[in-house]
Design brief:
- The protein is mainly beta and 115 residues long.
- Helix content is 10%, strand content 33%.
């Protein structure tokens, strides 16, 4: 039997597991945690920060820290006014009337993974 991997890309946290000897084993992240915050931040010179590093900067650099982005996937601009009012980052109207996030350099579009 081939290797089996499980990925949970959650709205708040993400997790990775493998099947070893018929039992699931959580793969720890770089900091030893079993889950990783589902957060992406942009630091100096548009440096990309992922997970716990991005979460640490949310207080000092909230407008450049993106979280809860899955709430916008597959939804139209008009449907998301309440959700957009709750996030500190800059949401912009994307093509096809979707919700994009304006980073320091360009608009970013949340994408749904293919089935």
């Amino acid at each position: 039997m081939g290797k089996v991997i499980g990925i949970d890309l959650g709205t708040t946290n993400s997790c990775l597991a493998v099947l070893e000897g018929g039992k699931p084993l959580i793969v720890p992240n770089q900091e030893g945690g079993r889950t990783t915050p589902s957060i992406v931040g942009f630091g100096k010179a548009n440096q990309r920060l992922i997970g716990q590093l991005a979460k640490r900067q949310v207080v000092t650099n909230a407008e450049n820290t993106v979280y809860s982005i899955k709430r916008f996937i597959g939804r139209r601009w008009e449907e998301t006014a309440e959700e957009r009012s709750r996030v500190p980052y800059n949401c912009v109207k994307g093509r096809d009337n979707t919700v994009d996030v304006q980073s320091a350099t360009k608009p970013l579009r949340p994408k749904r993974s293919p089935p």
